[in-house]
Amino acid sequence: MRILLQFPEGLKQQALRHAKKLEGEGNEVVVSATPTFGACDLAIDEAKNIGAQKIVHFGHAEFHHVDFNVEYVPYQIDADLGILERSLEPLKAFKTVGIMTTIQHIHQLESVADFFRRGGKEVVVGRPYGFAKKAGQILGCDAGSAASIDRKVDALVYFGGGMFHPLGALLMTTKPFLLIEPFQGSVEFIDKYREVYAKRSRGKILASVEAKNIGILVTTKNGQNNMVMAKILKAKIEGAGLGLNAAILVSNTFDFNSISNMLEFDAFVNTACPRISIDDTDRLSKPLLSANELNEVLKIKAELKSYNKA
Ligand code: SF4
Prior knowledge:
The chain is about 30% helix and about 20% strand. It is built from 10 helices and 13 strands. It has a 5-stranded mixed sheet with strand order 6-5-7-8-9, with helices on one face. A 4-stranded parallel sheet has the order 2-1-3-4. It has a 4-stranded parallel sheet with strand order 11-10-12-13. Helix 9 (about 275-280) links the parallel strand 12 (about 265-270) and strand 13.
């Protein structure tokens, strides 16, 4: 069988080892060298182009259904649970804690829960929502299992690597939020970032109030493609009676240098991975809005127009 292997950036260093193993089992193996952002980003076009019958996608669980033969090989990491000891002091004022992690550590979540129970806490684990498949699992674009327990807990606790995943959950919740990062060895509340990102969002909205021409970003990545939303937004922008123009801009992976060359546009709206309009705003000199932020801009523009008429 001809197989295309797909690895996220952190696992690309293992490509040759896996290729040789599958070749040894009688397969013809090709490795995708394209950047891979998640299971939302399956290399189906590449696989079809090279005549592969199957994709083996490493590092992520299934995200969305596709009409192609895909085998998911999740990558589990056994992080050192010893760091949990350092979380009891900062959490001492909170009786009920809601815990969450990523697919890489989901097999450790029960041990994390046991630790807190032994420390006298009540532990709540949210059901999976949307794209997440396991209880307590969050993705960068899906923190439903955290948001759904926000009202039931006194504090939220994320166990795992990096800021990417907990930031999404932080922005969808309201309770004190403790990050336990076993690789950096840090245990800290990250609540301050709620206000940082809220300010950034307000700044983008205000910077877009004078915008006349708006570019709507659409990706061809199969799990992020949202042409339907792009068309609705285009109709909304141009039908708002505010003299605005909009165009749909399509790419697989957005190159912000290339987008910056589109000087006619005063602002951009993202319909792809929702994290782009949160994490990548500094990569463009023009505002990069979410759909909700665009709605806010249109509302302000309409209010200004009627105020100026009065
Ligand atoms: S956060 Fe973005 S890149 Fe990650 S799974 Fe969600 S859509 Fe894909």
